[in-house]
Known about the structure:
- With about 160 residues, the chain is of the alpha+beta class.
- Helix content is about 35%, strand content about 20%.
- Strands 1-2-3-4-5 form a 5-stranded antiparallel sheet.
- A hairpin with a 7-residue loop joins strand 1 and strand 2.
- The protein is globular and about 40 Å long.
- The chain starts with a helix and ends with a strand.
Amino acid sequence: MRKFMQLIGSLTLGLALLFAAAPPVSAxxxxxxxxxxxxxxxxxxxxxxxxxxxxxxxxxxxxxxxLPYDFIDGEFGVGTENATKSMFSGRTVVEPWMWQxxxxxxxxxxxxxxxxxxxxxxxxxxxxxxxxTLQLRMxxxxxWSFFNPRTQAWAGTxx
Length: 159
C-alpha cells in the first residue's frame, strides 16, 4: 500500500508540474517562411492583438518609419494601426502578404543550421534617405526572434 501511495503521489506531482508549467516561448511564434503569419489588427477578435509577434511588427515600423523605441509595447493599438497605414497605403490590418513583403527584404548574415543559430537583417531606406536595419535570428527549429531596440535584447515572436 505504501508503494502504491508513493506512486500516486509521484503521478500527481508530475501532472501538476506538467499543467503548471508556462507555455513554451515558441507557442505560435513566427516560424520558417513568414507568409503564414497571423493577421494583426486592433479590433477584430479573429486577429492577434498583443504579444511578441505584435512587438516584431512594431519593431519593423520603428525601423521603417524612424519611430521612437518606446513605440514597441506589444499592443496593437491606434499607433500601430496608423504605422501600418503609413507603411502599406492606408491598410489597417496586417495580412499574410504584408509579412511576405517584409520577408522578401531579409538578408542572411551568418550562422549555419544545424548546429548554430542563423542571423539575418532587414534593411529599409527611410523617408529621410538613410538605411535602418532590424536584426533577426532563426533557430535551427525555424523559430524567429528579433533584437528589440526598446529593450536592447533578443525577443521572441510568440503570442
